[in-house]
Design a protein that fits this description.
The chain folds into two domains: about 60 residues, Winged helix-like DNA-binding domain superfamily/Winged helix DNA-binding domain (Arc Repressor Mutant, subunit A), CATH 1.10.10.10; about 35 residues, no CATH class. It is built from five helices and two strands, in the order αααββαα. The protein is elongated, with a radius of gyration of 17 Å.
């Protein structure tokens, strides 16, 4: 499993690691039932602290994507639902738009202009 982080990304590292693992699962690099490498190995490959990776793994477990088993490591339970992920991002976009005084209809118009 090849994971990459963008050093110019302003998001906290744990969020970047979470997103990278989620993309690997969604993209089929790891399938449901597959075990992930140990957190220390992932941390070493990414150049981050093991606690950062553990925080990301716990977040993905809380989303229902991963399963922790004592003595067996971390396994993939299911692939993420793309609509669910996009719904979260759309919610964030609407919140950001509201800060600029734009409503949902105006955001929809902007999206239609882009497509």
């Amino acid at each position: 499993m090849l994971l990459m982080l963008d050093l110019n990304d302003p998001r906290p590292l744990h969020e970047q690691v979470t997103a990278a693992i989620r993309r690997a699962i969604a993209g089929g690099e790891v399938a449901p039932g597959d075990r992930l490498p140990p957190a220390r190995d992932l941390a070493g490959a990414l150049g981050v602290n093991a606690n950062t990776v553990l925080r990301s793994l716990r977040a993905l477990r809380d989303e229902g994507l991963l399963e922790f088993r004592r003595g067996r490591g971390v396994s993939v339970l299911r692939r993420p639902d793309p609509r669910e992920a996009l719904r979260d991002r759309a919610r964030g976009l609407l919140e950001e738009a509201a800060k600029y005084g734009l409503g949902p209809d105006e955001v929809a118009d902007l999206i239609k202009e882009l497509s």
